[in-house]
Specification:
single chain, 74 residues, mainly alpha, 4 helices, 65% helix
Amino acid sequence: MKQRTKLSQQQHAEAHQTQQPAGQEFASAEELLRHDAAQTSVPPKIAERLKRTTAAAAPPKTGWLKRIFGGGNL
């Protein structure tokens, strides 16, 4: 009986180890978000709504420096 319990504990530990991927550290929150975005697929309905929303948004205003000096390189 003891051998059976010991074996089941060992099997449980092995199964637990194989299920969890190795941890990964990120240098910044932005790096974590980029990694997560690369791993996550966006549902088609949400992607379509996002496209419509961003298309309807007003373009960003031109800054006062560009208005004064123009759009060329300074």
